[in-house]
Amino acid sequence: MDKDLIRASSLRLRAGATPTRFTLTADHDPATLNHELAASFKLRHGRDSEREAVYFDTFDWRLYFKGLRLSASEQRGVILLRLESGDGQLRGRASVSTAPAFAADLPPGQLRDEISGLIRMRRLLPLVGVHSHGETLSVLDKQGKTVVRVYVEQSEAFDPERREPRRPLSPSVHIVPVRGYKAERRRLTEFIASGLGLPEADGDALTELLAAIGRRPADYTSRLVVELDPDAPADAALRRILRALLDKMKANEDGLRSNLDTEFLHDFRVAVRRTRSILGQFKDVLPEGPRHHFAAEFRWLGGLSGPVRDLDVHLMALSNENANLPPERYPALDVLRDQLCHDHDAERKNFIAALDSKRYARLLSKWKTFLDKDSGKNRQPAAATPIVRIASQRIWKRYRRAEKDGREVAPHGEPEALHQLRIDCKKLRYLLEFFRGMFDADAADPLIKSLKQLQDILGEHQDLQVQQDRLRKTARDLGKSRPSGWVDALLLTGGLIERQSQRQATVRQRFSAGFSQFAHTRNRARLRRLVEAAGGDP
Amino acid sequence: MKTLACYSIKGGVGKTAAASVLAYLAAQQGKRVLLWDLDPQGAATFCFRVKPKTRGGAKKLLHGKRNPVSLVRGTDYEGLDLLRAHFAFRNMDRILDETRKPTRQLGRLIRPLAREYDWLIFDCPPGITLSAEAVFFAVDALLVPTVPTTLSLRALEQLHWYLRRKGPSNLRVLPFLSMVDGRKSLHRQVCQQAAALPFGFLASHVPYASEVEQMAVRRTPLPAYARSSRATRAFAALWDEVQVALQTPAKRRK
Questions:
Q1: Given B49, B81, B118, which is nearest A145 (Cβ)?
Q2: What angle do helix axes A262-281 and A288-319 make, rounded to 10 degrees?
Q3: B249 CB within 8 Å of a chain A CB
Q4: In this prediction, what percent of chain A has a pLDDT beyond 90?
């Protein structure tokens, strides 16, 4: 009977990816399933086992978006890392002595090669843990060789901090493929799905585990996506964007406090800057009194986080300097790095104190109240104008301004002038990104692309400028505190300033080409089309 | 990916046992390992209960027109895959000879595997042939099981002589004493003088033991059924030595 059942079920289940997880129902407890499988397949029973694993990914889900799952489990005193594709296929393994953090900490080998290009300098953060107990069954061929593995298990999800009790999941059956035995895997899967009628589990194991602790995959993205109705009143549309930005700030707060990855602070800062940009560019839409007040408050917040971010970038740049220096200069580099770390800690402490302050709490609560209520009698003249018209006017104006400023500074402008142009470009980029969904993507996207290229040049130029200023300050501090090895560190600092100044000159040479691309007549025509389509008058 | 070949000019010296056990031990350490059974007899393939391939594809594979990944089979042990023996590997010399630069062919062939594995271990057939020469140019090291007898040592000497003239200059040669039978005075004598032998023997000796022979009966790698046997411990020590030897850059042979 069972062979017929298998054959019949094979015909029914076709097309699409082979499912890998099924949920056990009331009719099929593990013992019944065992019995039914044994009647149709040659099985080897493994020992009942308990296992615990924690899934890792970067804060912006880089592995998840590439269909990869990284888990770590402890076995006999070592931590075994497994990299799998979404369907359970093993893609890499490695054993480590401590929980994974950065790609550089992983042992050289195939797993590191596979993920280092994806996660780059991002930190691996624990997402969710799983505690399972159950049995491993091996389906064997005529030679007695394993061709598919089946885990019949009862799992519980837990948050990696273990702040909450473990959450039980439904008992499940995992089918784990063995390389080179696709037909056998399909045969077993078909038997379980159609022959036994077990329902396929919703989503993959990671999704289910995350759901159990109240999360979902990719629940955070750095991108700002706000759907806007082009005819919506400008006032209401801007509030929607500002609310989304407030959510971004809050989403990054825990991460930046824990200081596990510099990118939490980066995204927090971007949300603050975008907020400030709206407050500054829509004076005729948002009510004047509150606008002034919040602009000043967010300037305060942005100002405190700036030095921390600059030092994050500087320390990352310094970690690449090893490659440019002979090993005998490493101790001097370490003295310099220690000094910068000291500054970083001090600035960070300042910033965290601000986040813990009443002023910050008051800012967030008042800001939320402001965003949720109607402007009422304080309504500005352009508040009711359709957002698409206001947005296109602002974009056009900002583009012309950046174009004009760029022509004035190019090609031998002072660092301050280039920095000003950088700010203009940032404001334009934010506008294009806020309202991108309302415009023709063919016109907006190439413009954003060329703007991004120009911003990369300007950003690198500015980072080098900030780093030189910081190195000068650090040199003065080293001269005062005179730690061991300070003379060599001072000499090295001089060399680094010189090298950065040369690199800055090289970057500046690329400016003309980047700016010409951005200010090309093609881009202006695109923008004109975009504004005209929105009913504006460029 | 690091590459190692269990190779000897002589047959019956424990190449398959060493290749299978070391591949298993590497996988147990959390590495991804591919064991490539180059021997048409398919002894390693048999030990892992995989059916050898008997028809089709070998020529295309050796001509570089077929991705070797398609011949890979997962074993009973997670992290350890096997590129099963092909009966047509008996004609490997002839097939390689039809290609341009035959000794470089195997090196080209294994390149796509580097993305998937930490270790590639070859179980080679005996003899100095064109295919053996192709292995010399494809791997980081040759692990040479050597029975402590005059004829085995002579075969090792022949290998050194051959590699000095025709082998790649950066190939490491790692001989170790295999199938050491403590009851035989010659074996005991050679073992005592191993450090003084001219070929840079590894310190680990693998004893002659019936549980090693049981691998073919049980079709299971030794450590999986005799975890703490003397032979398993000797292979584990050998594996540690091999890893250390491959961590340092190869010296050019004079």
A1: B49
A2: 150
A3: no
A4: 33
Please indicate, yes or no, whether the overall pTM of this predicted structure exceeds 0.90: no
Name all domains of chain A by residue range, CATH numbers in brackets.
2-212 (2.40.320.10), 234-373+380-533 (1.40.20.10)
CA distance A14 to B50: 28
**Where are chain B's structural domains?**
2-243
CA angle A311, A316, A321 (to 5 degrees): 115
Residues A161-188 pLDDT 10s: 877 788 898 888 989 889 889 999 999 9
Instruction: Find the CB nearest A143 among B32, B49, B72.
Output: B49
Which chain A positions have a beta carbon within 8 Å of B246's beta carbon?
A: none
Residue B31 near chain A (CB below 8 Å): yes
Tally of residues, chain A = 538
The Cα of B169 is separated from the nearest Cα of chain A by a number of Å equal to: 25
Higher pLDDT, A374 or B246: B246
Sheet containing strand B80-83, edge to edge, reads: B72-74, B80-83, B33-37, B119-123, B2-6, B141-146, B172-180, B205-207
**In angstroms, rounded to a whole number, what is the distance separating the alpha carbons of residues B227 and B234?**
11
Residue that is written with structure tokens 């691996």 in the block:
A124
| Domain formed by B2-243, architecture | 3-Layer(aba) Sandwich (3.40)
Amino acid at site A320 = N
Per-residue pLDDT band for A7 (boundaries 50, 70, 90) equals very low
Distance of alpha carbon A486 from alpha carbon A395, whole angstroms = 50
Q: Does B140 touch chain A (CB under 8 A)?
A: no
Residue A72's H or E segment, with its range, is: strand A68-75
The pLDDT tens digits of the residues spanning B116-174 come to 899 999 999 998 888 888 899 999 999 999 999 888 888 898 998 888 888 888 899 99
Q: What are phi and psi of A332, to 5 degrees?
A: -65, -40
